[in-house]
Design brief:
About 15% of the residues are buried. It contains one helix and six strands. The protein is an alpha+beta fold.
Length: about 100
């Protein structure tokens, strides 16, 4: 029997991005993970807009290729996804340094 141990990293408490709670996590063995998973929920108001949307979605982000590998749930704001990349990459870079 082979036993594999993995490291799990997660943000505690959630990151608050423009009023939306964002939880980031990654699971990896030896090296930094390539994929960071996220879960988002909260009221998002776009800058210079009166529009307000409740966002509730999750997914994964490929930090090596800098692309969203999956996004599930909805509604999803393309503007918010663009903003989400920065905290994901900060989280990823922190893990890489450890």
């Amino acid at each position: 029997m082979e036993i594999n141990y993995k490291t799990v990293a997660t943000t505690t408490p959630p990151v608050i991005l423009k009023g939306v709670n964002v939880t980031l996590s990654a699971e990896y063995e030896n090296n930094a993970p390539g994929i960071v998973t996220f879960s988002c929920n909260g009221q998002f108001v776009e800058e210079n807009s009166q529009r307000s949307d409740y966002l509730n979605f999750s997914g994964s982000y490929d930090c090596v290729n800098r692309t969203f590998s999956s996004v599930n749930g909805g509604p999803v704001s393309p503007v918010f996804l663009t903003l989400l990349e920065q905290p994901i990459m900060e989280f990823y870079n922190t893990i890489k340094k450890e």
